[in-house]
Amino acid sequence: MKTPQFATRKKRLRPAFSPFGQAERATVRKGSATVLLVLFLLASASAVAVLKAATDKVVRKKVPGSSIIYIPSGKFLKFATFGYRALAADMIYLWAIQYYSTPTIDDRFDHLDHIFAIINELDPRYQDPYEVGSMIAVQEARGVEGPARSAFIRSAFAILDRGAANNPDQWIYPFDAGHIALMTLKDYPLAERYFEQCMKIPGAPEFVERLRANAIFKKGDLKTSWETWLDIYNRAPDERTKKIASNHLYNVKATIDQAAIEEAATKYRARFGRLPADLGDLVRAGFLRQVPKDLDGRDYLYDPATGTVNTAVSPWKR
């Protein structure tokens, strides 16, 4: 009877399979998977580095844009980044800054919009690339003319329009676009539309309304410009804003009066063969009902030799 007892006792002393053993093996498997993933990422990075080195050897003059042919589209990178879209956007953005700061790459601006479109697609709420991308395009547009300049301007608007579409709560994008249209492109109707779009976004600065009014004046719509500045004057929250609006009203009225006087002087010369000696001649000849005065009640300065009219003071130094 002792033998069965010894056998039973010996059987109990045998090592048994336990949950603790399972945990150890799971840890080993997880560690192996991590190592494999790291090795895969290192191999991928090495492949990209080799590919970049190969493309950098290609003569840029023969293959324009060869320096960026290894960058895939944003749609592909959304999946290739394994969920790290924001990190990928950061990396490409930092690379882009370095890339566009390298003057030895002659064709670096050929795909400006494409590069920043990749960043925008990876992280639509990433604010800086929209502004920096458009700034690069505008800066380069100032140094060229013709089709090249137009291409840079289109790129700037395309980048900012994406920013506005992806971030409808941010007023800065239509504001920047309006400023480019006003100051660089001199497209005043376009500037007016962008500033109007900006004004509709909560948080937009109050001075955007004045920029829109200025764009309306510059595009030649003097009637609407007068009405807009008068409305700004009447709603001015402080004396500074009221003074700004008053100066612009002075300028609008002077522009209207100058055009009327010079037109009348041209008709006077057509009839009498000479320019009027003074503005009173225009009234006596029936070309004006009365001699207009500026917004402050002062007479305009008339030059009988040229028929031109000027204000007694600058609108901005009243």
Which helices and strands appear, and what pairs or packs with what?
Blueprint: H1 2-12, H2 19-56, H3 74-80, H4 85-99, H5 112-122, H6 128-141, H7 147-166, H8 172-185, H9 188-199, H10 207-218, H11 222-234, H12 239-272, H13 279-284, E1 301-303, E2 308-310
Antiparallel strand pairs: 1-2
Structure, explained:
- By secondary structure, the chain is mostly helical.
- It folds into 2 domains: 64-252, Serine Threonine Protein Phosphatase 5, Tetratricopeptide repeat (Alpha Horseshoe), CATH 1.25.40.10; 257-310, no CATH class.
- Helix content is 65%, strand content 2%.
- It is built from 13 helices and 2 strands.
- The chain has a two-stranded antiparallel ribbon with strand order 1-2.
- A hairpin with a 4-residue loop joins β1 (301-303) and β2.
- The protein starts with a helix and ends in an 8-residue tail after the last strand.
